[in-house]
Each structure stands twice: as C-alpha cells, then as structure tokens.
C-alpha cells in the first residue's frame, strides 16, 4: 500500500427536498451574492431553478445567472463567466447541474482572481493560487465533480479537452437530492453509470496487490452501480436505485476507492481525446475504449482481472485464471450493452480513419512526450493499437 492523503472536505446534504437548504448553505459560508451556473435548460424546465432562487431569496442571498453550459464544457463559456462574475461582484459560485456545469464553475473560480488567461491552468502553464468559494446542487449522478478536485474543459480553438486538479476547487457543499435525477433521459442515466464504474475501475486496476479494504470498497461500489443501473433501465423513478447511484457518484471520485493505490486513468485519457474530436458523451466514450484497453493490458496482471471477473462481474472461475480474466472483460461488455452503451467506437457512432487514430494518439501523448496509464505505461505505439482495437 502506497502512502496517501485522503482529503474530502465537501459537506454533503443528501435527500429529498434538500435543495431548499441552498440559500442557508451559502449564508453559512459568509457569502451574499451568488453566480448561478447552469446548462441547456433542464433545470428551468423542471422548476428547480425557481425553487433555488426562492431559497436564496429567503436567506438574503442575491444572484445573477449564467446559463448555456454544454456537455464537454467550452472555454469560451468559462471566459464569459469570469467577466460576468467580476462585473457583478459575485462572491460565491453555485452550480446547478452535472459535471459540465460544476467544471465550468470551477474554472471560473480560478479565473476570477487570476490576471492571466484561465487556459494557462489547463495547459500546465500555471497553478491556481486562489479561487472563489463554490457549492453545487447536483442533477445527474455521473462525473463525481461534486466531490472531486478536478475540472475538465474543452478548448474549442484547438479541440483539446484537458483537466486541471486543485484542492481549491473542492465544493464547500453538495446538495444531493436523488429525485432531481428522475427527469434524466435513459441514455444520460446509463452514461453516468459507466462513468461512476470507471472512476473506481481506474483506481482498481493498479499494480498494488495488498489493498484489501480499498479493493473491497471498490468492488462493493461497482456491484451496486451495476445493480442500480439495471433497475433504473426498467424503473427510472426507483428512489432507492437513484439514491444509491447518486451516493456512488460522489464516493467513486472523492478518492476513497483509490486510497493506497497507484491509479491508472489511461481509459479517461483515451476518452478525453475522443470527446475533444467528436464531442461524444463521456460515459459512452469510456465504454467504447475500455474493452480494447483491458484486452491490451490484461497480461500486465491477469490475476487482478480474474479477481474483477469473479468479485465484480460474477463470473464463475475456471481452472485457467487467464480465461477467467477474459470472461470478466466480456461480462463488462455485456453489462455496457445491457444498459444501451457502446463497446467500441463504431457503436459510439464514428468510423475512425488511420489519420484520425494517429491524431488521437498524438494528442493523448502530448506529441509523444508522455506515457499514460499506471498498470501498464502506454506510449504512442500502444495507444494507436488500443484505438485500433476499439474501432
Ligand atoms: O444542460 P442540461 O439541459 O441541464 O442537460 C444536461 C446535459 O445535456 C442533462 N441533464 C443533467 N441533469 C439533468 C439533465 N437532463 C434532464 N434532467 C436532469 N436532471 O444531461 C446532459 C449531460 O450533462 P453533463 O453535465 O455533461 O453530464 P456529466 O455529469 O456526465 O458531466 C460530464 C462532464 O464531466 C467531465 C466529463 O469529461 C464531461 O465533460 N468529467 C468531470 C470530472 C471531474 N470534474 O471530476 C471527472 C469525470 O471523469 C469527467 O471527465
Ligand atoms: Zn469520468
């Protein structure tokens, strides 16, 4: 087990009607003028925005709004938010939405006190020294941004989707009302399930072999997410499944299921390039690349893949451990398909050309200057083969 620091300072307010507490939660932070950030309109249509405005008003918190954040959130919207925040003198950022909205607010929060261009953080040219305080009301269980320290933004000028991590972006509070996710289209619910699974899988497929507790927590979380995803496919208004899925979203990406591990993250890097090139949904992109990644690296530790097969996917072990491992990958594909997710890039909706594969691999390795992955370090040539395998 590696040395580790576990830091998860976000106050979680969980359950039905908890969005009514939002105004008081902002007040608790000593703030009185919020910039509310939201997406393409689902929060207006559902009436959530109105309830939150009322809660803020009751608590004496005034607000301005920034709508129109799109999935794979854009740098231009971040810049617009920084200008608006400065002009309106907002002292708190409230996200109402999912990962794209929260990530936009995180980037705005770094950008407001920074004299340079906010992309500097994502390009690795600067480290944030300050950020405005933030909180969120979550409307989709997926990215885990409500408890993570990362923000992922797409620069539409160069097609690069890049993440930046800093503890300054931890949410002061996260309001998690599972009922707010009832209005999600089934495709988004399934996307979210894959992303939640993958946040633990990226931490589970590691070279550390003595993480008894961390692995057991991860296995329980992954089994729970699969069970809830299947329930929600048939019964979208099942409160218990929505609630467990939402809690899993937060726990899967707040570091808990990675304590002591080296972590991998290759599948996320491979997906970010697909997102930058095709603007596809994050969870679906992960489902499209993971099977090819798994088959490419399986020999780095097929005992671990066999454990995943048995303890997570419910595969009956055979005498041949490697065969058991392979059956686990096939079972994961079956699960993805069962909830309407792709298992390769064609099913995701794209025919990749040789030139596109080369471009994706070039970007993924920052022009062949880095490797990605922890279980097996992958260079440009490896990445080309994984994209080819995912075609
Ligand atoms: O924009 P609106 O109209 O709100 O619609 C959204 C959007 O179209 C819709 N939606 C959300 N809640 C809804 C709803 N529709 C109906 N009812 C509701 N209750 O869902 C769509 C997707 O929203 P988005 O915020 O993009 O989803 P998600 O939470 O999956 O976030 C994905 C983004 O997060 C990044 C991804 O790369 C992607 O850009 N990630 C962020 C991470 C982090 N900050 O820690 C980690 C992740 O690995 C991930 O990379
Ligand atoms: Zn993710």
Automatic annotation (TrEMBL):
Domain annotation Alcohol dehydrogenase iron-type/glycerol dehydrogenase GldA: ranges: 9-178
Keyword flag Oxidoreductase: yes
Entries under InterPro entries matching the protein: ADH_Fe/GldA, ADH_Fe_C, BDH-like
GO cellular component: cytosol
Occurrences of domain Fe-containing alcohol dehydrogenase-like C-terminal (ranges): 189-388
A Pfam entry, by short name: Fe-ADH
Gene3D superfamilies xref list: 3.40.50.1970, Dehydroquinate synthase-like - alpha domain
Keywords (A to Z) from UniProt: Oxidoreductase
Highest taxon of the lineage: Bacteria
One function term, GO molecular function aspect: methylglyoxal reductase (NADPH) (acetol producing) activity
PANTHER family referenced in this protein's UniProt entry, alphabetically: ALCOHOL DEHYDROGENASE YQHD
Protein name: Butanol dehydrogenase
Native species: Cloacibacillus porcorum
């Amino acid at each position: 087990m590696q040395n580790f620091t576990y830091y998860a300072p976000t106050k979680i307010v969980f359950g039905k009607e908890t969005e009514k507490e939002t105004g008081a939660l902002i007040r608790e932070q000593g703030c009185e003028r919020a910039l509310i950030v939201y997406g393409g309109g689902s929060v207006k249509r559902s009436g959530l925005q109105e309830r939150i405005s009322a809660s803020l008003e009751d608590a004496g918190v005034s607000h301005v709004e920034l709508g129109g954040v799109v999935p794979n959130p854009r740098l231009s919207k971040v810049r617009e938010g920084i200008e608006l925040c400065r002009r309106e003198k907002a002292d708190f950022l409230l996200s109402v939405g999912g990962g794209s909205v929260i990530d936009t607010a995180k980037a705005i929060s770094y950008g407001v006190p920074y004299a340079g261009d906010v992309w500097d953080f994502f390009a690795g040219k600067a480290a944030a020294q300050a950020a405005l305080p933030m909180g969120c009301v979550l409307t989709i269980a997926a990215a885990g941004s409500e408890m993570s320290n990362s923000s992922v933004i797409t620069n539409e000028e160069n097609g690069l989707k890049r993440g930046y991590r800093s503890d300054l972006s931890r949410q002061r509070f996260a309001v998690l009302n599972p009922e707010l996710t009832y209005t999600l289209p089934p495709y988004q619910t399934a996307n979210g399930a894959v992303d939640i699974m993958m946040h633990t899988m990226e931490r589970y497929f590691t070279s550390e072999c003595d993480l008894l507790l961390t692995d057991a927590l991860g296995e329980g979380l992954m089994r729970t997410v699969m069970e809830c995803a299947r329930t929600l496919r048939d019964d979208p208004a099942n409160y218990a499944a929505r609630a467990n899925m939402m809690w899993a979203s937060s726990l899967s990406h707040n570091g808990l299921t990675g304590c002591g591990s080296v972590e991998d993250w290759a599948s996320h890097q491979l997906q970010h390039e697909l997102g930058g090139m095709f603007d596809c949904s994050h969870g679906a992109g992960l489902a499209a690349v993971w099977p090819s990644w798994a088959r490419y690296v399986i020999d780095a530790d097929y005992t671990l893949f066999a454990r995943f097969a048995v303890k997570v996917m419910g595969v009956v072990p055979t005498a041949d451990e490697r065969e058991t491992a392979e059956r686990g990958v096939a079972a994961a594909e079956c699960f993805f398909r069962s909830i309407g997710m792709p298992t390769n890039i064609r099913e995701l909706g794209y025919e990749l050309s040789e030139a596109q594969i080369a471009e994706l691999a070039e970007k993924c390795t920052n022009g062949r200057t880095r490797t990605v992955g922890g279980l097996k370090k992958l260079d440009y040539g490896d990445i080309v083969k994984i994209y080819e395998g995912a075609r």
